[in-house]
């Protein structure tokens, strides 16, 4: 669907060796579970789904078209996740600018522009992802509005106080949370909104479980605890306005995905850690005060 014209003029050197590893990871990523879902309607996500599975849409597993319908259903649940994130951005006008920190292939950015009609700026460490997102925006004729660049989310080239809202959709587990919240607080207007959807380990469990450690190793990330999010926000003028536990809402997605031919091997770790209480899928929306 997407051509391969490079629209990324300048690729900065990674700020740290770790960021170099993460850039390489996403430059090489081409898992069918992400590309085949994106091909359903051209919105390419690198996050997970929420909501009930529509078994009437899936039909009979012995049907020849079942796998295609299952892919479409997983994709519907991933887009539903973005919709919930966008619901928490508050009142956004066409003249506003939004920032997607860790934007992946840009699916959330396109959905944000389609909903609010405004400018959406994305940053990713991966030149391949930035090119993909920019090519997709050009194909949709929205390249004036939706733009991705290769950039460290801890040092974004956006003016202080410029953004009406910003978010991390499953991208905050790659950075120090205090540094991240300080940078969001800097780019956000006073009264602006920050939203994250993230997997975090549950302090009530004690320490990261073996399943959480397995997820970290699988993605080369460093999952933070719920407590760290609260502390990093409080220390950076970000006051939680809503904390929504999406753990129960994401389990149907994982249980459906585990039955598909697109499994990647990480399904068991997500399902077990959500079920044993060691891991939570959380949305936090905060006001920049
Ligand atoms: C799991 S993907 C999520 C993509 C996207 N938010 C979505 O929902 O589809 C994680 C993203 O975080 C980005 N990322 C990780 N560390 C980053 C950093 N320091 N600066 C910018 N992007 C970063 C990766 O490049 C990747 O695009
Ligand atoms: C909730 C947590 C801890 C997320 C870690 C970040 C991550 C890799 C998200 C999904 O990416 P993806 O869509 O590329 O992964 P997959 O290939 O498994 O679908
Ligand atoms: Mg995925």
Structural account:
The protein is α/β, with parallel strands linked by helices. The chain has one domain: 3-Layer(aba) Sandwich (Rossmann fold). It contains eleven helices and seven strands. Strands 3-2-1-4-5-7-6 form a seven-stranded mixed beta sheet, with helices on both faces. Helix 4 packs across helix 5 and helix 8 runs antiparallel to helix 11. The longest helix is centred in the N-terminal third of the chain and has 22 residues. The model has no long low-confidence stretch (mean pLDDT 97). Bound molecules: S-adenosylmethionine, geranyl diphosphate and magnesium ion.
Average pLDDT over all residues: 97
Query: What is the assigned CATH homologous superfamily?
Result: Vaccinia Virus protein VP39
Which sheet architecture does the biggest sheet show?
7 strands, mixed
Cα-atom radius of gyration: 18 Å
Per the CATH scheme, the topology name is Rossmann fold
Q: How are the strands of the biggest sheet laid out side by side?
A: 3-2-1-4-5-7-6
Number of strands: 7
Topology:
Elements: H1 17-28, H2 32-38, H3 55-58, H4 66-87, E1 97-101, H5 107-116, E2 119-124, H6 127-140, E3 146-150, E4 163-169, H7 177-187, E5 188-201, H8 210-219, H9 226-234, E6 238-245, H10 247-257, H11 267-276, E7 279-288
Parallel strand pairs: 1-2, 1-4, 2-3, 4-5
Antiparallel strand pairs: 5-7, 6-7
Helix pairs in contact: 2-4, 4-5, 7-9, 8-11, 10-11
The structure holds S-adenosylmethionine, geranyl diphosphate (GPP) and magnesium ion.
